[in-house]
Prior knowledge:
Layout: E1 16-17, E2 23-27, E3 33-38, H1 51-64, H2 79-92, E4 96-100, H3 103-114, E5 120-124, H4 129-138, E6 141-145, H5 150-163, E7 170-174, H6 186-195, E8 199-203, E9 226-232, E10 242-246, H7 248-257, H8 259-262, H9 269-284, H10 288-305, E11 317-323, H11 325-337, E12 340-341, E13 343-345, E14 355-360, H12 367-378
Parallel strand pairs: 3-12, 5-6, 5-7, 7-8, 8-9
Antiparallel strand pairs: 1-2, 2-3, 4-10, 9-10, 11-14, 13-14
Helix pairs in contact: 1-9, 2-9, 3-4, 5-6
Amino acid sequence: MPEIPNSRIRKLRTWVPGGRSSELIGVDENKNQITLIDLASNDYLNLARHPFLIEAAKQTLETDGVGSGGSRFITGSRNIHQKLEMKLAEWLDREIVLLYPSGFQANLAAVLALSDRHTPVICDRLIHHSLLVGVKASGAKLIRFKHNNLSELERLLKKSSQSNPQKKPLVITESLFSMEGTTAPIKEISKLCIKYDSKLLIDEAHALGVMGPEGRGESFGLKEPISIISGTFGKAFGSGGAFLATDKITGENLIQNCGAFRYTTALAPPLCAGALAALNLIKSNPNWPSALKDNSIALRDRLAQIGWRRPAGEGPIISIVLGSDELAMDYQKRLETQGLLTVAIRPPTVPEGKSRLRLVIRRNTPVQAFERVIEVLKNT
C-alpha cells in the first residue's frame, strides 16, 4: 500500500459548542483548549442549537423515544414522520415526500429509482460522491459534462437522443455545489431536458433553506422535467436525515421497490421534530436567505478588492482555490491562529492541484470574523 503524504493525512478533531452559537471549542496540537468562530460547518442558519429545535426534539424524545425501532413498514412510522413529509411536500409544491436516515442514502435511492443498466446518465462533473455511487450501483452508463457547461450538456443530450431514442436519459446536477460554491443554471438545464425528453434529478442539499424563493431551493417553481429533488436536514435545517420530493407515481415506486427506503430503520423521531421546527422557522423568516446572500456577496467583493480572484457563486459557500495541499493547510493554520475555524479541502475531495479553503457564511456570523479573514489574506 502506498504511503500517504503528510499533507493528505486527516486527523479527527472533536468539537463541542462554545458559549455563542457561532463558536466551537476544540483542542489544538498541544492539547490546549481553543475557542474558534465556526466558518466551516454547514449549519447555515444557526439552527442546530436553536431553542425551538431543542425543545421540539425533547418533547418528541419523551413521547416517541430516541429511535424509531424499525422500518417504516414494520414499527418505525410515527405521526411526526407523516407530518414532516406532508409539510415539506406542501412547502416545496411536490406531490409526495419520503424521509431517509441520510442524504447519502437518499441520493442512492433517487438514482436507482430513475435509472437502470440501459439508462444513459448525464451528470455534471462535480456532483456529489453519493450520486456517483448510485450511478455505479444502477449499472447505468455514466456520461459527464463540464461543470455548468450548457453547450456540452446539450451536445450530449442530442447525441443520446439520436443513438438511443427509445431510452430516456437521466440528467443529474446539484443546485448549490458543496465544494465550489457555484450554483447550477437550473432553469436552462430544465429547458434542455424538456427539449430532449430527459428526466432530471436535482440535489438541493446545500441550497434548501438558503437559496431560491424564501429558501425553497433553486428548483422551486419548476415541475417538468424534474423527477426527484433530494434534500437534507443536516445542513440549513440544523437537524439530521434527508428526504426525496417527487410525484405520486415515482413516490409509490420508491415506497414499494426502493430497498434504501424499505429496509432501513426509520429516521429518529426527535430528528424529525427538529427538522419540522426548523421548517417552521424558515417559513416564518423569509428574509434569512437574502440576508445570507448579501453577506456572502460582500465577502466575495472584499476578497476581490484585496487582490484575490473573486470566488464564484453567490451562496454561503466561498471556495478559495490555492493549489497545493501544503498551501491550503498553511492558510488553515493562519486563520486558526486568528480564532477562525476553516478547513483545507484536499484530494480526493477535490482534483489534484485544486486544494482550497472552504469558507462558510452562516446566519449571525460575527462581523469581526469577516474582518479577520480579510486581514489574514491581505497580508500574504
